Amino acid sequence: MNKILLLLTIFLSVLSNIPLNAQFKDWSNKIGIRGSILLPENEFANFGFSGNDDFSFNWFKFSYTGEAFFGFKVSKVTELQLNLGLGIYSGKAYFDDPDESFGEYKSTLIPVNLRLRVSPWDIPEWNPYFYLGSGVMGFDLSEIRSPNVGGEHTDNAGWCGIFLLGVGAEFALSNNILFDVSLGSTFSTSHELDGYKSGDNGIGDYYLNLGVGLSFISESCDSDKDGDGIGRCDEQKSGTDPHNPDTDNDGLSDGDEMLIYKTNPLKSDTDGDFLSDFDELFTYKTDPLNADTDGDGLSDGDEVLDYTTDPLKTDSDSDDLTDSDEVHIYKTLPTRSDTDGDGLSDGGELHIYYNNPLNPDSDGDGLSDGDEVINYGTDPNNRDTDGGTVSDFHEVRRGTDPFNANDDIIKIDVPIVLEGIMFAKEKSDITPESEIILQGALETLKTYTDIIVEISGHTDNIGSNEQNMALSQRRADSVRFWLIQKGIEPDRIIAKGYGEDFPRVPNDSRENRSLNRRIEFKRIK
Length: 525
Prior knowledge:
Elements: H1 2-16, E1 29-41, E2 64-73, E3 78-94, E4 101-118, E5 127-145, E6 152-153, E7 157-172, E8 177-188, E9 196-197, E10 206-218, H2 232-238, H3 254-261, H4 277-282, H5 300-307, H6 323-330, H7 346-351, H8 369-376, H9 392-398, E11 416-417, H10 432-447, E12 453-458, H11 465-485, E13 493-497, H12 510-516, E14 518-523
Parallel strand pairs: 12-13
Antiparallel strand pairs: 1-2, 1-10, 2-3, 3-4, 4-5, 5-7, 6-9, 7-8, 8-10, 11-14, 12-14
């Protein structure tokens, strides 16, 4: 019993110092060699100086076996091994007086056996197992020296049956080489391995064995060391790396790519749209097998990376134009339904109103296309919808009807205040905004070529009367000069300043004073 404990201690010590790093279930055939130290168990074993002193080892002589074996896998947890060995079984014994030696024996052993190994555990780092088996063993008492002791002396050679049981573990040294450590017992049906037969009763001579070995394995086609769900042979056929679960490093395992998504495990971007297969599947929900998932003419990569459009929608901004048409044909923004911000969608401008989606005022009349269509109903492609010579903007600004050409010309039977004529503060320079109002007066003079008009200037009561008189005259002169520049004969226009003498309303508030600062247009002949 003490010897078994000692061997078990040595066995566990060896196990604790072996690196752990492999799988052990994926192989098809195995060959190997094994060497074992034997502790014989027979009539002489354990007989020491003080009788049956189990721990004396006075009887011990070096015993060993060397074996070659071939193994093949029966299932994931079982293996059959055919073993052929050659070894030495030897020992000696003493009486209480160490000078009275009573013999030595030495047998040559040739064990042949079949073992069933069982490994029900699936542990990545190591492969513990237990085994049992049976076979035959040849023995030859090549050396025996024995004085006359009790019992029957033999010096036979022959064959006997053997039975085996034990435990062990495998550890990977590389992908194809395993280190094996085992502890077991081999029981024989013979009592004559030690050259001394004490009787036929009980178990025959046997031995304990502590063995180490090397196994060389060939992987099976189903071997999946990288755990990607694809066997070794299938990975070799497809060109993927059987030791890397994600050959193209796209975030998808080779098995998922081949079996589930049908993507190319050798290309991180199967459809060549500059999005990885993983991103297409889990980030953008696009089709990794189709470079243009929504079929709008833009690749998924261009939509995501360049234009920030939706690769799942042909019309990202819902303006009735495909993203591709907006980018390549119309040059509008595919993520903005109203590129020019005029209040009309790009699709509406192109297919309904036929105006420019890149210009908020297609006809250049001063009104946005949206205002013309939505608010005024005018033609956004015609700056003068009624054709009466005054633009839609001018008519809207002065309150005339942009659909009635007859009101484009200012009637001059009575003095008309040109509302909106603006000057720089305390100056006579006409602002650009005022030119729009003067356009109506210009059209009147061009229409009625035989009339003479007076342009009168008026101010509020701020400042002296002399100053206001001079300022109103300068402003009237500025308007007269503007009309002359536009082609009206100078002798048809009279400019006169009235200062603060003719207010429209009392100069008692800021608003009223603003009304009194004005230019009037009236016919005098």
